[in-house]
Amino acid sequence: MMAGLVGFRPPGYDRLPISIPLRPDGRETAVNSQVRESDPTVRALLIDINGTIFDHGIAIEGAREAVNLLRDRGYALRFLTNTESKTVEATLESLSACGLEVDREELFTPVVAARTLLEGFPSACVLSLMSDELRQSLAAAQPEQESGPTHVVVGDCQDVLDYPLLNRAFRAVRAGAELIALQRGALYRTPQGEEFIDTGAIVAALEYGTGRTARLLGKPSSEYFGLAATSTGFAPGQTAVVGDDATTDSAGGNSIGATTIQVRTGKYAAQAAAGLAKGAAHTVDSIADVPGLLAGAA
C-alpha cells in the first residue's frame, strides 16, 4: 500500500503538486501568521477523531503513540470532528478522559469553523440557533445582537428551538441574512437506540421555506477543510487529511487538494462492503501506520 507516495495527483485537483515529498524538513514550527505555499512537503495533518483515533470511545491501538510521534516530528496537527453539540472545552475534556491530550488550538469543530469565518465580518450581527453554551462560544468572536441579523447560524438547538425562534430565523434569511449550517445530519441515535431530529433537518426546513441554500461549515464541505488547513499556517497542498470515512474525510480533503489517507478502522469496513471506500490517495490499516507512510517506510 506504500506505492505511489510520490507523484500522486488526484483527478481534477490541479493545485496539488506533481511531486509530493512526504517527509517534513526538520522540526520547524508549523504555525505561522501567513499561509506558506512555496514548499509542497506535507507539513500539517487534519486527523479525524471518531473512527480514526477512537472507536466508540476506546483508543485505537497505537493511536496515541502515532500522534506523539507526529508531534515529535514537527507536524502541525488539527483534530477534526463534525460534532456541533459540544463546546470546545467539553470536547477537550472528553478526549482527555479517553487518554488523548489535545491543545485548544488543535481542535477544529464546526463551531470553531463558524467563529473563524465570522471573524472576517467585523460588523456581523449573528442570530444563533444553538444551545446557550454553544451560543456563548460563538459569541466570543461575534456577539449576537437583537435586530438586523447578517448571518443565521444553525447548530444543535434541541433545547432552545421553538416556533418564534425558527420564524425569526426564517424572516432574517428572507431579508438577506446568510444561512450557515454547522452540519447536515437528518437524525441521530442515542446509544439506547432512541432517534431524534438533527440539525440538518432544521436547516432543510429553513432552506425550503426561504428558497436559499445554506453555507455548510462541517464535513465534507471544502470550506470547513480549507479553514482547518489554513489554521495550521500551511497551504492545503502541504496538508494531509487522515480519516476513516471516504464520503466525508477523503472527499473533503480531495476538494481542497490535500493528500488523503484512509484508515481501515471505524466506518471503513461498512463503506468497503458498499463500494464507497475509495477516492483516497493512500490506504493504511490504522493511524498507527501513518508516521511510517509519511516517512516513506516500505
Automatic annotation (TrEMBL):
One of its GO terms (cellular component) is cytoplasm. Pfam families: Hydrolase_6 (PF13344), Hydrolase_like (PF13242). Transmembrane segments: none annotated. It comes from the Bacteria. InterPro entries: HAD-like_sf, HAD-SF_hydro_IIA, HAD_sf. One of its GO terms (molecular function) is phosphatase activity. This is Haloacid dehalogenase.
